[in-house]
Amino acid sequence: MDLSTLRYAESHEWAKLDGSLVTVGITQFAVDQLTDVTHLQLPKVGAAVTAGQAFGEIESVKAVFDLNAPVTGEVVEVNSKLATDPSPINADCYEAGWMLKVKLAAGANLDHLMDKARYDEQAASDGH
Amino acid sequence: MTNLRTALYDWHASHGGRMVPFAGWEMPVQYTGIVAEHQAVRTSAGVFDISHMGRLSFPGKDVLPFLEDIFTNSVASMKLDQVRYGLVCNDRGQILDDVLIYRWPYGYSMVVNGANRTKIVAWLEAHVAGRDVAVADLTLETAMIALQGPKSLAIAAGLFDVDPSTLKYYYAAPALYCRQPCVVSRTGYTGEDGLEVIVPKDLAVTLWSEIVERGALPCGLGARDTLRLEAAMPLYGHELDETIDPVQAGLGWAVKFDKPFLGREAIQARDAHRPVRVGLALDGKRAAREGSTILLGGQAVGRVTSGSFAPTLDRPVAMGYVAPPYTKPGLTLDVDIRGTATPATVVALPFYKRAK
I want to staple B283 with a disulfide (CB 3.0 to 4.6 A). Which of A11, B94, B224, B343 is the partner? Predict the structure, then answer.
């Protein structure tokens, strides 16, 4: 996966555009903050998601965090295997750990998201 | 105010320790991962920097009556080299701290929670009341390392002039490490066999490195919390605070009502209907966290004080306080987890007990 083809939200979700479908997951930075994922709550197929708003939650031994949609649209596919085994998120967050596929709403795009360089910069200053 | 750093700070930071502020110190919350570190302690051995804990000693001939006055457990009946757990309470019987007292040939010392060190030192000094005893805070000159897990004693063999495997549980020994005086005790906060060692701070890195080289996995506060939670050990600021008395916290075994101590009468006079500590095993995978409401039939009956996914039990567990009628093991309650009522079964504590 060429990470420079992805776009990034401030809240550490990534988005990959393929035509009008966007695949969504969380970044390695987020995975490192979370550590071992124990639980994941994802929306159902057909659910509407709005950029910047929560679509689910992710929980680790340490804490629980909202998952925020990087784009606006309709959920057309969910990686439902993660509900029983979230370990692909820790192992491979950009490929096997993908969470949703979203069909972009009319007029919606990824312009508000950061490119890899800007995201890396932001994550570095965020880092603790 | 900047946080304090233990003698092991540089080691933690340069070996993958993720540093966080805790109790006024910079401490590692994890290295390789909380679950991996937790499992290492349960199956092998892990090593923790616990230098943030307060280490006090009490020079002066009146130390015994002084401690007897402010400690809920019996000091006078302690044997030489014994270590005893108990509470220090205010005059309303509410817990100021949970502490360990060590009895030595020359006197006594005490280990207190890092978060309470300043509070307890000031409070103890204020309660000397003209007796010939002083409170000496040795925390900043020393370091403390916990080695925990079934392989601990094998790892520690030969490190000290004393053989720690001869120590009984909750006994300590003055010992030499690199020819300098240290303290080794067979105590811990994980529910596993193990040792806690107090060394002069200049020896901390040497001892820690030697223990790691011998196969103990560096562990942080994250695993320390999941381990003590499974063992149902209370944590000050969660199960214990200045609104809670020892009996409702389930620590009546650490209180000797047949001797006078500050807060005794107040504890005995506490309301019989006050909430009592309980253990809950939750359905599903979502963890209850501190502050979550405990419900029965939609009515609030208590609150969670600690909760997490428990790696050894492979399910979320929680401790909290509920009204006395709802503490019966087997009873199904609910915990409100971010708006969803999640079934939770009352279970007898501890959640985990090591095989003997």
Answer: B343
| A81–chain B nearest CA distance, Å | 15
Which residues are CB-contacts of B57 (< 8 A; sequence separation ≥ 6)? B107, B108, B109, B110, B136, B138
Measured between beta carbons, the chain B residues lying within 8 angstroms of A64 are 286-287, 289, 338
Q: Closest CB to A62: pick one of B34, B284, B285.
A: B34
From the list B29, B35, B289, the residue facing A36 with the nearest CB is: B35
**Cβ under 8 Å to B: A residues 1-40:** 35-36, 38-39
Residue A66 contacts residue A97 (beta carbons within 8 Å) = no
Of A8, A1, A2, A14, the C-alpha closest to A117 is A8
Contacts A–B by Cβ distance under 8 A? 42
Domain that holds residue A84: 3-126
Looking at residues B57-82, what average pLDDT do you find? 98
List pLDDT tens digits, range B189-208: 999 999 999 999 999 999 99
Distance CA B115, CA B159 (A): 30
pTM of this prediction? 0.91
Question: Which domains, from first to last, does chain B contain?
Answer: 1-270 (3.30.1360.120), 274-347 (2.40.30.110)
Q: Tell me the pLDDT tens digit for each residue of A16-74.
A: 999 889 999 999 999 988 888 999 999 999 999 999 999 999 999 878 889 999 999 99
